[in-house]
Design goal:
It contains 20 helices and 5 strands. It has 477 residues and is mainly alpha-helical. It has a 3-stranded mixed sheet with strand order 1-2-3. A hairpin with a 2-residue loop joins strand 4 and strand 5. The longest helix is centred in the middle third of the chain and has 32 residues. The protein is globular. The chain starts with a strand and ends with a helix.
Length: 477
Amino acid sequence: MNVTALSLPVVLPEAIIAAGVLALILYGALRGARTQWLVAEIAVALLAAALAVVVADQRESAATFFGAFVDDPFSRFMKALALIGSLVTLLLSIDFMRNEKIGGFEFPVLILLATLGMMMLISAGDFIALYLGLELMSLALYVIAAYRRDDLRASEAGLKYFVLGALSSGMLLYGASLIYGYAGTVSFTGTAAALHGHGNLGIVFGLAFVLAGLAFKISAVPFHMWTPDVYEGAPTPVTTFFASAPKMAAMAILIRVVVVAFPGISADWRQIVTFVSIASMALGSFAAIGQTNIKRLMAYSSIGHMGFALVGLAAGTVEGAHGVILYMAIYLAMTLGTFAGILSMRRDGAYVEDIADLAGLARTNAPMAFFLGAMMFSLAGVPPLAGFFAKFYVFAAAMKADLYWLAVIGVLLSAVSAYYYLRIVKIMYFDEPAKAFDRPGSAARVVLALSTAIVIFYAFAPAPLTDAAMAAAKSLF
């Protein structure tokens, strides 16, 4: 790997977004509320430009800022996912903000700042860069969680996320300081070299605290408590953002930390990851059964899906990392499609969120019912949709690592979770129809249709995504 003090090509996507953020803040402050929709459109263009640079980059692995910032196939793949999540969120938010009259040029700027933090987090090569990226991402997320200031639920969601997020950041920082004290370095590669395959009690404690802080960001059990309230209370585009892009970044740095910094003590972190995985799958599968609010149901669904993804990480192998990366890519498509459907649930000018509002959708809006039904079947892991292959790869990696019992638990809990997904399909196709929804915005229709196309046709052409995920996984080992 080529390590330099500063290399602009390595940080070009981040430089594009950082420069754009500074310009948009200045422009918005000078021109006021009149600029809000123009700022949103420019923010979309900036994210698209950064995504184009990331996708077009085919260079070998490199590092800059003396190894603190890493650019490799893994970071580029996960950055592309995070940028897609941010880009789609912004596109979906424009109609919502106009209809709800809660605009403001600050929202797209905060999305850009959070995305910049995610990209820094994904490319972090040491614990200091990790913490800087995490806090840059988190501080913007705290604000947008409570962006609707006159809504009590949104204010409550923002406060809960801020308090619990500050606690998790403190735990992560304490764990990183313990690791530094025992390893004598903050670098991931330096930490791996210092351990020499032997981790004492202090290192294990430090690793546990770091994993706890990162588990909070992916809303894994037992650090999930903020998720249902924030998903339900925040504006739906904000919930869409929380469910997509930040999870890509947090899972990416979780993979990088355990694989790059602690390969010698894999037996220790695999136990932690296995426990978190089982607990997340179980809670996500059972707690969602009684939910009536579809955003709250999606919160528990996301907890469960993070547990399924961690099954692959528990394997601790290249195949396992490949399974997690592929799972996150497919999860992103399913989540964005589902939330595009939720943003289409608008009746008489007001957005509705109850699952019962979907009753008889097949008779009032057959295309939307088909698209949402495909999302539900894929989330449940029904073949031959993409969600089935996502679970197949992580379970196969677990079995190859002799974790047969973990794969069996995952399959059983996946069957349990299928109940509440298929219940939504039953409501849409067999219940008496409720009043028809208003015509959804063009962005929501396009995202829902594209997501459905991805989950349906992935089985016919899996090679491009699967091969890119494997190349990303191999670059870590």
